[in-house]
Each structure stands twice: as C-alpha cells, then as structure tokens.
Amino acid sequence: MTRILTVDDSASVRQMVSFTLRKAGHAVDEAADGREGLERVKQEKFDLIVTDLNMPNVDGIAMITAVRRLPGYSFTPILMLTTESQAEKKDAGRKAGATGWIVKPFQADQLLAVVQRLVR
Amino acid sequence: MTVVGEAVESLRRAAAELDALTQASESATGAAAACFEELAAQTDGMLRLGAAIVGCAQQEKVQAILPRIQPMGVILQQLIERRQQAVGEILDTLKSEAGLLGRLIAVTRQQRSAARQTGTLGMLTDIEIAHLGDAGTGFVYLARELESFAQAVTASTAELADRVLERRAAIESARRDFAREIPHICLELARAAENARTVFSELEQGLTSLAAAPQRFEAAVQEISGRINGVVAAVQTQDITRQQVAHVSAAARQIAGMIGAAEGSAAGREGEWERIQSGLTIQAAQLRSVRQTAESWLAQMGSCIEGILEVSAGEVAGIGPAVLAQERRLAGQLAAIEALEARCRSGSAQMEATCAGLTRLTDLIDEHLRESLAVRERVRLLMFNSIVEAGRLGTQADAMMEIARSIQLVAGAWNDAAEGIRAARDEVGRLGEAVETGWGAFVGAGEDALDRLREETTASQETLRVVAALATEKAADIEAAVRELQLRRKSAGDTIAALRATLAPLEPALEVIEEQQRQLPGRAAEPGRTCSPGEAEALFAAAYTTEQERAVLRAALTGATLPAIEAPAGNGIELF
C-alpha cells in the first residue's frame, strides 16, 4: 500500500485529497502546514507527498527544499497542489525539487492517474 | 465620529466579519465534505452489492440461457400447429370411416336381398321338381343347396350388418367426443402456449436486461464517479474563495488606513483617492466573484449529492426477484401444459378402443368376404349345372331354365356385393391405419415438444435460481442501503444550508464597500477616476495566492465580465 502525505492549510482540501486517494486504496496522512508536514516526514517514510504552496508557518516551497535534504527523500515524488499557476511560481517549485504541479481544483481521476504514474 | 471615521470603522468591521466568515465557512465546508464522504462510502457499499450480483450473473453464464429460452415459443407454436393438423386429419378420417361403414351396410342389404332371392329360387326349384317328377330328381341337390346358402348367407350378412352398425355407432360417438373435446384441449393448449410465450418473452426481456446489467452497472458507476469528482472539485473551490475573502479582508483594512491617511492630510497624497477608488472597485469585484463562485459550487455540491442519492444499484438488484418470478411463472406454465397433455393422453384409451374395434371389424369383413366369394363361386357352379340339366331335359324343363337364368342374375348380384365388400374392407383398413397414425402424431407431437421444453427449462431454471437467490439476498441489503441514503438526504441538505448560511456576511460586507465607492467621489479631486491597473495591482495583488483573484482584478479594472472558476481540463497537471 502506498503511503501518501497531504499537506494543506485547508482542512476541506486535505479531506478531498485523502478521500480521493484512500478510495483508490492508498494510505493517506495529513498535515495542516509545511512545518507540520516536515515533522511528519521526519517521523516516517512516505512514498509520495502532495503539498499546497501558500501555507502559514512554512510554505510549500520551503517545505520541499527541507524535505529534499532529508535522507531517503531525494527521489520521493512531491506534487504541488495549489491555486497558483504563474510560471515563476512553478519554476520556484521545480527548483525546490517538486516533481509536478497541479492547479486546484483538481479532478479526482487526474490526480489518481498522476499518483499511479509516479508510485508504480 | 466623523464621516471618514465612520467609513474607516465600517470597513474594519466588514473586514472582521469577513474573517469570521472564512473560519465559519471552512468549518461548514468540512462538515459538508464529511457528509459527502459518508454518502460516497454508502454508495460504494451499494455498488459492491450490485457488482456481486453482476459477477454472479456472469459466472453463472446467464447469457447462455437466452439461446435456450428463445426457441421455446417456436416449439410450442409447432406443437399447436402439429396438433391442429393431426386433429383435423383424425376427424376427417373418422368421418370417412363412418361414411364407409354406411356404404358397407348398404352392401349387406344387397346381400340380404340376394339371399332372400336365393331362398325363393330354392323354393321354386322344389315346386318344379314336383312338376317334373322322376325327371326332376337332378334338381333336388340344387334346391337344397340354394336353401342352405340362403340361410347361411342371411345369418352371416345379418351378423356383419349388426357389427357394422355397432362399429359405426362407436365411431360416431368417438368422433363426436373427439370433435368436442380435442379442439377444446387444443384451444386451452393454445392459450397455455400463448401465456407461455408471454412468459418466455418477458423472461427473455428480463434475461436480456440481466445480461446487459454489467454495461448498465458500469455506466452507473461512471455516473457516480463523475458526481463524486464534481463534489471533490466543488469542495476545493471553497478553498479558493476562502483565500479571496481573506485577501479582501486584508485589503479592506488597508483601504481603511488609506482613507484615514488621505483625509488627514490637507490635499491628500497625489492620486491617493484614485488608488482608494481602485481598491474599493477591486474588492467589490472580488466579493461579487466570491458570491458568484459560492452560489455555483453550493449548487454543484447539492446537485452532485442529490445525483449520488438517486443513482444506485437498485435496478441491478431488482432484476433478480423479477427473474425469480419469471422462473416460477415458467414452471407454472410448463405444469399447465403438462396437465393438458395428461387430458390429451386420457383420450388415448377411447381412441385405442376405436382402433381395436376397427381391427375386429376388418377381421369380420374378411371372414364375410371369404364366405361371400365362396357363395358366389358355388352359385355360379349351381347356375351352370342347372342350365346344363335343364338343357338336357328340353322343353319340359323350360321353367327350370328360367330358374337357372334367375340364379345367374343372383350370382351377378353376389359378385357385385362381394366386390363391394372387398373394396370396403381395403378402405376400412386404410382408414384405420390413418386414424392410428393421426392419433400417434397428435400424442407424439406433445411428447416431443414437452421433452424439449422440459430439457430447456430444467437446464435454465437452476442457473436462474442461483442468480435470483443471490440477487434477492443482495437486493434486501441494497434496499436497506437505499433507505439509509434517503435518510441522509436531509442531513446532506442541512449541511449545505448551513454552509450557505456561513456565507451570509458576504452581502453586508459588499454593501459597505459599495457604500464607500458611492461616497468617495465627493472627496476625490476627479470623481470616479481610478489609478492605473499596474499601480492597482502593485498595491492590492501582492498578497494574492490564486489565479482567480488576479483574473477578477483585471476584470474589475477593465469592466469585463467576472470570470468563473472551472476545474482545469487536462492542463491543470504538469510533471517536471
């Protein structure tokens, strides 16, 4: 079973990501911002991370940068799920180490297809 | 408090209300999402039940039953047609038989008449012998023979006539019985067959429907999946509006500060009122956009949840009991046809008796025919002897010569009667065989058809029972799940109503901003003028975190229609 961490300051978005992924048979944990997400990642190994960009405390870019420095997370797929679609933001995400960029609102089947492709 | 002070205060109050709205709507959205998750889980359970039924139908090869059921109607139709044909032939044959026996009776009457004439000729011969005296002794043997033949033939003919009359009465009776009973049975059989055809047809429809269930079920699953996706997207949209509202709240505080500062300075900072005007215009547009989006996703959420409640595996579950009912009707129809068959077979005893009677009659006619032919030969011989003897005596035996000629005529009549009996005998035999064959076809048609019907039905019934039993069992679970879903309909509606209520402060906040827009021209150096889009964007869009906000800002400053939020179709995902 694939272990996935969803990081978003919107509880309802976390709820929808978890719902969509759990329905497809994945195990999903949640974190409310980048700082909490980083803590979870340090505690256990996840196969994939789905994170928001704009969050209080630690934002998505900072969290990805920190996660990439952790042992065992160099190649872990990290998807940014955000309301942003500006090129410079995407570029920042890519440079921080994000694997992909998904603009909200996501479509469930598309998210599942991407996850399936990254964790197979 | 001054007018400016009131404006600043009202903007700050609106900002505070928008902050509260953000928190409340987040919480209400969470509740609605949780309600939706429960609905989705229940729907999943229903789909699993439906999938079990579909899987069972596939495993039990329900589709293979269709080709077995389809020819049943044709089999029954053929049975009816063969029966009706056989009945027509039997009744025609029996009618011919009765007519033939009537003709045979006429022949026996001719024979009796000939026998009486023979007896009379014997008596006349005796008289003539007395006239001839010693010369007539040669005719004594003739006279005895004629009397003896007359008696024997009269008795034989009478017996045959009696038997023929009896047989004709029996055949007439059988014909009447069959004419009354068999068409009636055939009619009932036709009705039973019609009912059976209806059952087969309905069963075929049910089976076709069941066979198509996987496709329909797949479509239902797709439909539900689509609606779930819709709710997932709608819930996420709330996250976008949440950020919009938060940024409007921050901007309202920013504008309140700008108004306070501008009013405090003598002439106001260059272009400050234009920047404030732009800010108010943008925030009003953002709140209108939020209102428009919220209405849209609230409606979408409601519609999606309603749709999930309506789409269910109920149709799949309903097929099983329907098939079971059809299977029972099928068995009932088969039983009814079997009962009619039993009635048909009960007619066999009467028909066998009729056929046996005809065989005995044929034997009797054979015997009578042999006797008749023997009599004919003897009468001919006696005729020749009497002519020779009368010729030898010359004129004194003229009377005997006349008797001899009369014997010749009687011999001719015997000959005709014997040939008539021979022809009748052949015809009786042929018709007897035809009755037997016709009856065999009548009974045999039923046996063949019933054997096939039994074979096809039995093979299909077991499969149907297995599928129907499972479907019925699962249907109860599905119905319980549907009831549970219906109960959740109200709570789903309540959560959406609660979510809608949390958005109520949008209106007063929008009114405050619009009121400030209306009052502002009185303070601006050039009423109604706004700052440049670039300056406005730099002032108010720096904190923006959504594309929607930027799009609304551009629309607000250019007077374009506010954009709607749509889920990116395919281009929302990019892998680096």
List the helices and strands and how they pair.
The complex is a heterodimer of chains A (120) and B (576).
Chain A: E1 3-7, H1 11-23, E2 27-31, H2 34-43, E3 48-51, H3 60-69, E4 78-82, H4 87-96, E5 100-103, H5 108-119
Parallel strand pairs in A: 1-2, 1-3, 3-4, 4-5
Helix pairs in contact in A: 2-3
Chain B: H1 3-59, H2 66-69, H3 72-132, H4 140-211, H5 213-264, H6 272-310, H7 314-393, H8 398-502, H9 506-519, H10 533-540, H11 547-558, E1 573-575
Helix pairs in contact in B: 1-5, 1-7, 1-8, 1-9, 3-4, 3-8, 4-7, 5-6, 6-8, 6-9, 6-10, 6-11, 7-8
Quick recap:
The complex is a heterodimer of chains A (120) and B (576). Chain A is of the alpha/beta class and 120 residues long.
Key attributes of the depicted protein:
heterodimer, A: 120 residues, alpha/beta, Rossmann fold, five-stranded parallel sheet, B: 576 residues
Structural features, described:
The complex is a heterodimer of chains A (120) and B (576). Chain A is an alpha/beta fold. Chain A has one domain: Response regulator (Rossmann fold, 3-Layer(aba) Sandwich). Chain A has helices spanning 11-23, 34-43, 60-69, 87-96, 108-119, and strands at residues 3-7, 27-31, 48-51, 78-82, 100-103. In chain A, helix 2 packs parallel to helix 3. Chain A is globular, with a radius of gyration of 13 Å. Chain A starts with a strand and ends with a helix. The model of chain B has no long low-confidence stretch (mean pLDDT 79). Chains A and B meet through helix 1, helix 4, strand 5 and helix 5 of A and helix 1, helix 5 and strand 1 of B.
